[in-house]
Amino acid sequence: MVRKPFGGKKISFKGQKKTLEQVFGSAGVTPSLMTKKLWQHIKRFRLMK
């Protein structure tokens, strides 16, 4: 049996108005911090369905 990524849930950014700078900030970020901030944004705005 093949497992689906994210438990079969999908992430949709449809209708989002925020820019990458608003999500990640204007300073440089490390890849690990970028991933953390992206997941915080997804959870805060309930983008995973």
Short description:
The chain has 2 helices and no strands. With 49 residues, it is mainly alpha-helical.
Q: What is the overall silhouette?
A: flat
CA(first)-CA(last) distance: 22 Å
**Low-pLDDT sequence parts:** none
CA radius of gyration: 13 Å
Number of strands: 0
Overall pLDDT: 92
Strand and helix order: HH
How many DSSP H or I helices?
2
Percentage of helical residues?
25-40%
Strand content: under 5%
Helix vs. strand class: mainly alpha
Characterize the main sheet. Answer: none
Characterise this structure:
It contains two helices and no strands. It is mostly helical and 49 residues long. The relative contact order is 0.23.
Main traits of this protein?
flat; mainly alpha; single chain; 2 helices; 0% strand; 49 residues; 39% helix
List the helices and strands and how they pair.
Blueprint: H1 20-24, H2 31-44
